[in-house]
């Protein structure tokens, strides 16, 4: 269907750029005063009302419904996993068996990494914080170290699977990657496998940082009974996600359907197990603002791309005179690290993937390492600052509620060696394997 146009192509480009820049400024600097989902939806409405993008293209082309379906479905699954008490059981089992401070804290951090693959990072921090606090009290340890370590650990696994974080879902859909493509793609070790190496190195750095924590104490831990259905559902959904030939089954070939079905089954289990009121709490707790934000930002970025701004930006980068893809890879990774400490990684990912594609095309190289580099930088780099990831904000607020203000030095001491070790490992492996 056609749609009206108020501006010439050149004018439309400038108008679209102005809308995008203003929206991004509000998202960056005024998120405490204005909800970012409101900003993104207003920006999307403006590009439609001004004729830059038609509502039909926004609905059918701009908005990635598969990503939204997976986010909602796996969000409900995460709620059911939490209700099943699996995270609490895992943490309790660790504390039963390991009494030395450095070992117990490291294992709690490793559990935070594992749980964050399937459960939102802030929820993981909320789940594990009571056990970390109990351990800290028994060991007479430094609570800042405990909670910051748990928070940054929960935030380092964003690229281990395609369902671990919204940017991973966005990349998978953009490139057309299936579940196991995150581990082996184009006959090479892929992003998920590389991320596992990064996490191992980061965990070793934590072990080195905890090396002097040799206190031993008894910790009273209750036995926890786990409901297994959500865990079984998770593994079945992952197998279906991995093995169904989505590109070959026509109109039903949308992974979002699987996500929604998984979410619906999780909701039915929750109603049967805990009643309707409990499941209503899931809906209240779920981050619907993320869905609304993505709808707006998908439309905005589509508009920026359709008027040619992303291609202009890529051409500007390519015109710097740098011809080495390795240098561009380094720039993309470490600029992403720096920016992710201050901005949301979802809009940044949506913006940068097309830029990477245009840049790779201008250089005549494979765009995949550029995509992977951006996700390694923006995913793991969110630990650079206390506000770079929601999990970090939750941890610092918990500490503030207990009268412990986290200084920059306190935060850097735990988070920076961990973050730079993880990102540097990813950079080295991407350079060796993909460039």
Report what the structure shows.
The relative contact order is 0.15. The two termini are 43 Å apart. With 435 residues, the protein is mostly helical. The protein is built from 20 helices and two strands. A two-stranded antiparallel ribbon has the order 1-2.
Lay out the secondary structure.
Elements: H1 9-29, H2 36-49, H3 55-62, H4 65-83, H5 86-97, H6 101-115, H7 121-139, H8 143-154, H9 166-175, E1 184-185, E2 188-189, H10 191-209, H11 229-243, H12 255-274, H13 276-285, H14 288-306, H15 309-318, H16 325-340, H17 345-363, H18 368-380, H19 390-401, H20 408-434
Taken in chain order, the helices and strands follow as HHHHHHHHHEEHHHHHHHHHHH
Question: What is the number of beta strands?
Answer: 2
The tally of helices reads 20
Provide the structure class.
Answer: mainly alpha
What oligomeric state do these chains adopt? single chain
Q: Provide the gyration radius in Å.
A: 22 Å
Write a brief structural summary:
The protein has 20 helices and two strands. Strands 1-2 form a two-stranded antiparallel ribbon. It has helices at 9-29, 36-49, 55-62, 65-83, 86-97, 101-115, 121-139, 143-154, 166-175, 191-209, 229-243, 255-274, 276-285, 288-306, 309-318, 325-340, 345-363, 368-380, 390-401, 408-434, and strands at 184-185, 188-189.
Offer a few descriptive terms:
single chain, 435 residues, mainly alpha, globular
């Amino acid at each position: 269907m056609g749609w009206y146009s108020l501006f010439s192509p050149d004018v439309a480009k400038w108008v679209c750029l102005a809308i995008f820049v203003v929206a991004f400024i509000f998202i960056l600097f005024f998120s405490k005063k204005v909800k970012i989902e409101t900003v993104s939806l207003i920006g999307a409405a403006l590009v439609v009302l001004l004729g830059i993008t038609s509502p039909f293209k926004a609905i059918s082309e701009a908005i990635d419904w598969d990503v939204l379906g997976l986010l909602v479905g796996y969000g409900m699954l995460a709620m059911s996993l939490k209700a099943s008490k699996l995270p609490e059981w895992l943490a309790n089992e660790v504390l039963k068996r390991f009494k030395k401070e450095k070992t117990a804290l490291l294992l709690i951090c490793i559990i935070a990494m594992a749980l964050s693959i399937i459960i939102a990072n802030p929820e993981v921090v909320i789940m594990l914080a009571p056990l970390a606090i109990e351990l800290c009290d028994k060991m007479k340890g430094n609570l800042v170290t405990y909670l910051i370590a748990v928070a940054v650990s929960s935030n380092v696994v964003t690229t281990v699977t395609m369902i671990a974080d919204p940017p991973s879902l966005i990349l998978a859909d953009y490139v057309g990657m299936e579940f196991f493509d995150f581990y082996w793609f184009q006959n090479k070790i892929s992003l998920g496998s590389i991320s596992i190496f990064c996490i191992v190195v980061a965990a070793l750095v934590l072990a080195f940082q905890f090396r002097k924590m040799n206190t031993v104490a008894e910790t009273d831990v209750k036995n926890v009974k786990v409901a297994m259905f959500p865990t079984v559902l998770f593994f079945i959904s992952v197998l279906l996600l991995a093995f169904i030939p989505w590109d070959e089954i026509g109109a039903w070939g949308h992974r979002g359907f699987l996500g929604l079905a998984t979410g619906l089954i999780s909701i039915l289990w929750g109603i049967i197990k805990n009643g309707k009121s409990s499941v209503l709490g899931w809906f209240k707790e779920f981050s619907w603002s993320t869905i609304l934000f993505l709808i707006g930002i998908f439309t905005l970025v589509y508009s920026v791309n359709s008027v040619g701004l992303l291609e202009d930006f890529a051409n500007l980068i390519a015109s710097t005179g740098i011809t080495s893809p390795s240098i561009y890879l380094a720039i993309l990774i470490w600029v992403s690290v720096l920016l992710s400490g201050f901005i949301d990684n979802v809009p940044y990912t949506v913006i940068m993937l097309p830029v990477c594609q245009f840049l790779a095309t201008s250089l005549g190289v494979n765009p995949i390492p550029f995509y992977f580099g951006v996700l390694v930088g923006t995913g793991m780099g969110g630990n650079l600052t206390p506000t770079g990831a929601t999990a970090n904000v939750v941890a610092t607020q918990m500490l503030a509620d207990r009268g412990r203000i986290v200084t920059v030095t306190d935060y850097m001491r735990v988070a920076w060696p961990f973050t730079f070790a993880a990102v540097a490992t990813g950079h080295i492996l991407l350079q060796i394997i993909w460039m």
